[in-house]
């Protein structure tokens, strides 16, 4: 019922601010406007505003299922995103969340995420480490281990969360926490 008001507000919102209502419209689901909202959200990946790109990638990474068009645009944006961009971590994380685990896209995203874990600010390291853990394997524990000793709390939290995801997924049923 709030969709008309959100759509009206979007006509004057900045690109960075428009991510959140577009994300909400996508999540509200069930209508043709959901696809339109996802397309608009995905279009923000090509914004000149790095904050809009970062937020759009973050939102797309949290949507359960995205279109193949959105996945293609995420891939293209990651390839074009500058190495020092704050959006790079979130683009790689979104791609890893939506790529088939055995795909070349997942392997490439994991490599970008590993690089981000070692060279990015703490908040990005948190995102990278958590995502690697959610979609990683036992072998990825080695990449997470050094972050557990980081002076940055966000990096340590990401490494601990990522490690826990991996360890929980590999533990026999009912054995975690005992």
Q: What do these coordinates show?
A:
The chain is mainly alpha-helical and 178 residues long. The protein has ten helices and no strands. The protein has helices at 3-10, 15-28, 32-43, 50-62, 68-80, 87-98, 104-119, 122-135, 141-144, 153-170. The radius of gyration is 17 Å and the shape is globular. The termini are far apart. The model has no long low-confidence stretch (mean pLDDT 90).
Rounded to the nearest angstrom, the distance between the terminal CA atoms is 47 Å
Largest sheet: none
Q: Please, what is the average pLDDT?
A: 90
pLDDT < 50 stretches: none
Q: Roughly what fraction of the amino acids lie in strands?
A: under 5%
Any idea what the radius of gyration is? 17 Å
Percent of residues in helices comes to 55-70%
Number of discrete helical segments: 10
Number of strands: 0
**Broad shape:** globular
The SSE string, one letter per element, is HHHHHHHHHH
Oligomer: single chain
Structural class: mainly alpha
Q: How would the blueprint of this fold be written?
A:
Blueprint: H1 3-10, H2 15-28, H3 32-43, H4 50-62, H5 68-80, H6 87-98, H7 104-119, H8 122-135, H9 141-144, H10 153-170
Helix pairs in contact: 1-2, 2-3, 2-4, 3-5, 4-6, 5-6, 6-7, 6-8, 7-8, 8-10
Main attributes?
0% strand, mainly alpha, 178 residues, 10 helices, single chain
